[in-house]
Write a sequence for this structure.
């Protein structure tokens, strides 16, 4: 009834839920002030606060008891309200109701601020799509787009679904997905994600992921699952609240029976309300989630933050996690007199112009000058490519390709190649029809922030471990450059699972950070799994507890430090609230506190707990 009345009031006033609560609290607060100064009125104005703030609490308690037999803080608060009214302490009753609702409002404001960053994603969901069929164009709801539909996106419009550009060039603002501040140029063959914004040119695209499979919908599902109520420690606080209700009733009854003063019994009910205890954990978790969101992390459940605080080992995938996952040319070397290193790179890039292989594309992209024409191109699967460049037949590929072409590698060539192989590089040999000309070394570039991030983890007491499917040389080269002591190379998914299990058996709490489908089992197995949300696969993100949307590894130490601070805040909140309750109860039993002062003292504790939790929103390990 009250809820329906509140909804009607809200619709009449055309204000949101939080604004409505502020308006009702303002009226209640004014009524308490008028009552306190003793203004002569035909009725006790404290009843305004009792009716507006107290009746919803009582109804909530009754509904919980009748429908679920759920004994929570509302039950004790309701008893304190009713008892205060029965003994004529209407001001105390109004004060209890008012401050309880004020505490609820502060919690609501804290949670709203904490989740504001990620809830903006929901508002970014595209509503319509421009579908092209032949020469006709029609606008339909975005959820009705099917895979392989051809869509047109105009400048300023939001990309409705995931897809691939089939015509046109543009720049896309991908901040919502990757956190990049500058638009990214896109052309035919490039992928675009739903929720990103087309900045300049119009383009046509073919839909590849629609509806709930699209990137923006995946993020929204992560947002909707970010529920602090899933944390184990919240359940513990709830159980304590139930016992406190029982103990409060027994204590009040005994005090009344022994002292004969019902005022003391009512005061005990007022100060025994476990509001601060119940608020201690969820407010801290939600504030921490809000802070994490600002730094690029989407937390799927509060329990993950609790577990993250205890992590002692962080296991990392290499490709796409500690590295960018894209090969780049690290060296070009001539092995024949009369040819420069740049000649070798030009010959190889020219031969690879028509190649679709990632290594070939990396070589072409690395050459800044104009390439000569490539003729008679052919690709040999598993070997390399061959083509005519300036009338000369050029081969670019692996050692097997040279063997099949009867081209022998001399001792000097083998020594140079071995040097790069030991450094973890991939070697492409460049040859003419009859002899080796030189070689190209490619490597996966380590992320700029990886080294400093790992150093920061060590200062937090977290040991980094590298788990990779790459060969031993590549794994050791990367680990050496990053300062990682424990390295496991040539790992299959089952190997990663086994290694994480062994670490856990040894008493370590394990964090796993990865991006690929092969990392999904490990992300599930680890105590905490973090997926690279920007470049990671859908399966990896779904398997993880947390997604790192911007793929900015430099934020990981902040996140772990935040989780540790969150647990300290929770423990401080719990200790403070229980200590305050015990002191207030003793003072109530001996008659020092009356219901009015007891309500002020106890509910001031609830407000302090919420304010202390809210400090996590601005937490920075650098500042602290």
């Amino acid at each position: 009834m009250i809820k329906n009345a509140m909804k009607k009031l809200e619709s009449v006033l055309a204000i949101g839920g939080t604004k409505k609560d502020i308006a009702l609290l303002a009226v209640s607060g004014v009524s308490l002030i008028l009552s306190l100064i003793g203004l002569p009125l035909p009725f006790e104005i404290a009843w305004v606060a009792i009716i507006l703030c107290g009746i919803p609490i009582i109804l909530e308690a009754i509904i919980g008891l009748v429908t679920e037999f759920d004994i929570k803080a509302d039950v004790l608060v309701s008893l304190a309200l009713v008892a205060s009214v029965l003994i004529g302490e209407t001001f105390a009753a109004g004060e209890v109701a008012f401050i309880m609702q004020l505490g609820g409002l502060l919690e609501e404001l804290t949670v709203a601020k904490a989740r504001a960053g990620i809830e903006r994603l929901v508002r970014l969901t595209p509503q319509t799509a421009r579908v092209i069929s032949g020469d006709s164009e029609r606008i339909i709801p975005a959820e009705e787009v099917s895979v392989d539909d051809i869509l047109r996106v105009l400048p300023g419009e939001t990309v409705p679904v995931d897809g691939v550009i089939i015509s046109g060039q543009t720049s896309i603002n991908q901040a919502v997905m990757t956190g990049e501040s500058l638009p990214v140029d896109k052309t035919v063959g490039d992928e675009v994600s739903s929720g990103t914004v087309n900045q300049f040119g119009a383009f046509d695209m073919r839909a590849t992921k629609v509806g709930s499979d699209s990137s923006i919908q995946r993020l929204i599902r992560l947002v909707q699952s970010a529920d602090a109520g899933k944390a184990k420690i919240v359940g513990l606080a709830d159980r304590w609240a139930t016992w406190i209700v029982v103990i409060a009733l027994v204590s009040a009854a005994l005090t009344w029976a022994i002292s004969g003063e019902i005022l003391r019994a009512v005061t005990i009910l007022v100060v025994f309300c476990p509001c601060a205890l119940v608020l201690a954990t969820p407010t801290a978790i939600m504030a921490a989630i809000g802070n994490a969101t600002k730094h690029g992390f989407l937390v799927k459940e509060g329990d993950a933050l609790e577990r993250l605080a205890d992590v002692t080992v962080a296991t990392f995938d290499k490709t796409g996690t500690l590295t960018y996952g894209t090969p780049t040319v690290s060296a070009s070397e001539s092995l024949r007199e009369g040819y420069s290193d740049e000649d070798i790179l030009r010959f190889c890039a020219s031969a690879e112009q028509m190649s679709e292989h990632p290594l070939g594309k990396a070589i072409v992209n690395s050459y800044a000058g104009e390439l000569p024409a490539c003729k008679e191109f052919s690709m040999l699967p598993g070997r390399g490519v061959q083509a005519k460049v300036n009338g000369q037949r050029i081969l670019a590929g692996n050692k097997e390709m040279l063997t099949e072409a009867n081209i022998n590698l001399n001792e000097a060539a083998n020594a140079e190649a071995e040097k790069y192989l030991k450094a973890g590089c991939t070697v492409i040999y460049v040859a003419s029809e009859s002899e080796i000309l030189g070689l190209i070394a490619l490597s996966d570039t380590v992320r700029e922030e990886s080294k400093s991030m790992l150093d920061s983890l060590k200062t937090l007491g977290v040991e980094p471990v590298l788990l990779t499917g790459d060969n031993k040389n590549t794994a050791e080269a990367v680990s050496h450059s990053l300062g990682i002591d424990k390295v496991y190379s040539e790992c299959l998914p089952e190997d990663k699972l086994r290694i994480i299990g062994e670490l856990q058996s040894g008493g370590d709490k394990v964090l796993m950070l990865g991006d690929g489908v092969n990392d999904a089992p490990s992300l599930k197995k680890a105590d905490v799994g973090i997926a690279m949300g920007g470049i990671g696969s859908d399966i990896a993100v779904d398997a993880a507890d947390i997604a790192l949307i911007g793929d900015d590894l430099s934020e990981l130490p902040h996140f772990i430090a935040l989780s540790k601070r969150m647990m300290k805040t929770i423990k401080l909140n719990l200790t403070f609230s229980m200590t305050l309750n015990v002191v207030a109860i003793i003072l109530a039993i001996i008659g020092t506190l009356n219901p009015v002062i007891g309500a002020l003292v106890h509910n001031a504790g609830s407000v302090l707990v919420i304010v202390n939790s809210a400090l996590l929103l601005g937490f920075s390990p650098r500042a602290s």
Notes: The first helix runs from residue 2 to 13.
